[in-house]
Amino acid sequence: MGITECDNMLMLLSVSQKMTEEEREKVTPLMIKGFKDAAEEGGTSVTGGQTVVNPWIIIGGVATVVCQSNEFIMPHNAVPGDVLVLTKPLGTQVAVNAHQWLDNPERWNKIRLVVTREDVELGYQEAMFNMATLNRTAAALMHTFNAHAATDITGFGILGHAQNLAQQQQSEVSFVIHNLPIIAKMTAITKACGNRFSLLQGTSAETSGGLLICLPREQAARFCAEIKSPKYGEGHQAWIIGIVEKGNRSARIIEKPRIIEVIPRGAGSSDSSTTQSLDGQC
To answer: Sign of dihedral through CA atoms 188, 189, 192, 197?
Structure first.
């Protein structure tokens, strides 16, 4: 939608009943601080909320804003000829699970032939960094480069959210995804696990994923270059991943998409990504 301002933020905090009193006293203030810091980064502050106790640790919130119609972009104006741009790499679910498996010998043995412990640590750090990066810059640039539609990528994966966005379009269009930017080594892990995450099929859940944006073809490359500018801070990226064509309001990933391996920034490589065919051996 291209919203960049937030008038009010409420916080929902759930403290786990499985935590000891000492754990609660140490962890809970850090969770609250992190949430408040993120709100401040987004230009707002926490004004209230609710705290509960249940079996799970949860933190989240509700953001509200009142704005003029020219301050947001309706998500239904994609046209044939547009291109699809993604602003964060995929693979957060795989990265988090793989990191947990470092302490689970049975799980680790399934992937240790395709990745090292360092690979897993770097992938996990990259996932954390991306999850902690706001979509605010990308939302602002949607206005600059005349975006026609957008959605965020979360629980239904890249394909699920692309399908939902395609169904909302006023024009009879379809989205075709040719490229999948994925955190390095996560493709190898998902293959070693018998494709249990459905990462390459586009239905692996993402947490705090990027924006999938429909942009005019002539603006897409400029958007991708601009978002990497140091003036927006570290870590912003974007890739052209597909096209909008005349169709029936559907979305699909081609049979053999190009996998863009996004190198974790802690890996010390000057290249941010490499590419590999889906049918390549890992």
So the answer is: negative
The domain made up of 8-71 is a member of CATH 3.30.1330.10? yes
pTM score of the predicted model: 0.90
As assigned by CATH, the class of the 83-277 domain is alpha beta
Sole residue written with tokens 């966005």: 165
- Kindly report, residue by residue over 150-163, the tens digit of the pLDDT: 999 999 999 999 99
Task: Please state, as a whole number, how many other Cβ atoms lie within 10 Å of the Cβ of residue 14.
Answer: 17
Q: Is the pLDDT of residue 1 over 90?
A: no
The structural domains of the chain, with segments of one domain joined by +, span 8-71, 83-277
Of 211, 221, 185, nearest in space to 94 by CA: 185
Q: What percent of the chain has pLDDT over 70?
A: 95
* Element housing 110 (H / E): helix 105-111
d(CA 145, CA 213): 11
Residue 270 scores a pLDDT above 70: no
Residue appearing with tokens 């990027």: 210
Give per-residue burial for 224-256: e unless 16+ CB within 10 Å, then b: bebbeeeeeeeebbbbbbbbbeebebebbbeee
Q: Which backbone phi and psi does 132 adopt, to 5 degrees?
A: -85, -5
CA torsion sign for 61, 262, 256, 168 is positive
Q: Are 121 and 163 in contact (CB under 8 A)?
A: no
Give the tokens for residue 144. 């600059």
How far is 105 from 101, CA to CA, in rounded Å? 7
Q: 72-107 pLDDT, tens per residue?
A: 999 999 999 999 999 999 999 999 999 999 999 999
Q: Give the Cβ contact number of residue 263 at 10 Å.
A: 19
What distances in angstroms separate CA 77 from CA 146, 209, 218, 252, one per listed residue?
A: 11, 22, 16, 19
Tokens describing residue 52: 């509960």
Q: Are 1 and 150 in contact, with CB atoms under 8 Å apart? A: yes
